[in-house]
Known about the structure:
Number of strands: 4
Helix content: 40-55%
Number of helices: 3
Radius of gyration: 30 Å
Strand content: 15-25%
Largest sheet: 4 strands, antiparallel
Structural class: alpha+beta
Strand order of the largest sheet: 3-2-1-4
Shape: flat
Order of helices and strands: HHEEEEH
Number of domains: 2
Amino acid sequence: MRREREEDRFASGRGRLAPLAVLAVVIVVAVMAVVIAGKAIYSLAGHEGAAGYVSWTGVVDRVESGKAVVIPLGGARGVAVPDDELPSSEVVIPADLLPPASSEGTVLDFAATLRPRKTHSRRAHIEALVLRLNNRRRESPPAP
């Protein structure tokens, strides 16, 4: 009799429901852990207000000769000056770096993040190029 009940329960699928629920909970918890860890790593990597990160808002003043003139507005994060005292100078950037729908009067957010590893890698690459060029000069005979 007991065996028949177990077979009926197994055949109806009720016995499988509990393990599936546990699996779903485990997946949800794992995804949440990955998201939280990702945010922590992103924060530690120099983002979101940490040293090495700055963001600011600016308005496109004009676009001429392939260059865009952007006026910084208040509200910068990661800058060592009060929000309302941002430099009032103009920032000139290539117009190609603006989003395609940008025009005069468009308000844009800008962000810059220091990339220490990439900076180090790039400097090492440049130093290797300079060293190669110097070695070529030493090896080539002087011109008459």
